[in-house]
Amino acid sequence: MSEQSQKRFIPPEKLDRLKQISIKARADILRMTKVADSGHPGGSMSSIDIFLVLYEFANVWPDNVRHPDRDRVVISHGHTSPGVYAALAAHGFHDIDEVIATFRLAGSKFEGHIERHLQGIEWTTGNLGQGLSAGCGFALAARLLRKDFLTFVAMSDAEQAKGQVGEARRFAKKYGLDNLTVIIDYNRLQISGWVNEVMPVNIRENYLADGWAVIEIDGHDYEEIHEALCEAVDDGQPTAIIARTVMGKGVSFMENNWEYHGRALTDEEFERAMKELEFDTDLSKWFELRKEFSKREFRVSLPAQESVFIKPGKPRTYGADVKTDNRSAFGKALADLGVENISAGGTSPIAVFDCDLATSVK
């Protein structure tokens, strides 16, 4: 086991504790979507075991959420916010009562799709298929900053059909982003039905074809999730973990039913579900809290940014007698900035991507 995985190793007793927490987390997912009468419980319940292990495994800390050496956890399928919030609350980032009471309430920080102003969230997500690109950016930044933090990207299976995901896979391989791990919730369902009927995608084969390592696991088996994460951070290459899951896992009538992708339970369904989970069905406490919160003036602020210092260097001045094109002048100025900031004086190295137009944009 490498130093990277040793730093994040989860003892068996903690994994057992997470298994117990997962039952309450599922109840919390159903509570918050019921109180809000909206949201995405199905995918949240298939992803919750992944989220619980991932936030325990990653080097992230609720008492120091902006630590520069923290791992970056990107949640690409941001509509599974109920699962993300339940997992973050279980790890001490948020008060679960506030989450349940204010989920999707106008002005609340606990929005229907996760936003980066929330503690524990690195990337604002809504449009599927963008998370891996963001993860590539974080992973490359670690290298440029000479830091050893890791990047984990949690994704859905359906979003693998997006073209941007393929571009990000190839980017990660080209730049050797061995500090990047993707874990895919493979529940085989999306909002319109079965994934292989809506838009067939050979997820495993696509990652292998683009040069990634692939690990396949049971996404509800805590030991398998943990072992896969340890293997992924040790194998010296970008790695995709395909976690086979069940939409609506934990409540019999919700399992493998795409209908619960994006709607809250009815009163009767909620009663049945909470009975199966062995939790109280009384929501009065949270409805009262919701009324109280709705009277407040919400002020959501972005997190404090990490310090960025770019040395501007010396400007190039062209006299009227000097003939040059705009893009050459721009290219020279950009190159000057790059040289200035790769030296000891700059704390923010500059990376430039040109879409294979280097000779044009200089």
Describe this structure in words.
It is a single chain. With 362 residues, the chain is α/β, with parallel strands linked by helices. A five-stranded parallel β-sheet has the order 1-2-3-7-6, with helices on both faces. Helix 2 runs antiparallel to helix 11, helix 3 crosses helix 10 and helix 5 packs across helix 12. The model has no long low-confidence stretch (mean pLDDT 93).
Descriptive keywords:
5-stranded parallel beta sheet, alpha/beta, single chain, 7 strands, 362 residues, globular, 14 helices
SSE arrangement, N to C: HHHEHHHEHEEEHHEHEHHHH
Helix content bin: 40-55%
pLDDT < 50 runs, ≥5 residues: none
What's the arrangement of strands in the largest beta sheet?
1-2-3-7-6
- Count the strands? 7
**Sheet with the most strands?**
5 strands, parallel
Rg, Å, rounded: 23 Å
Approximate shape? globular
Structural class: alpha/beta
Number of discrete helical segments: 14
Quote the distance from N terminus to C terminus. 44 Å
Mean pLDDT: 93
Strand content: 5-15%
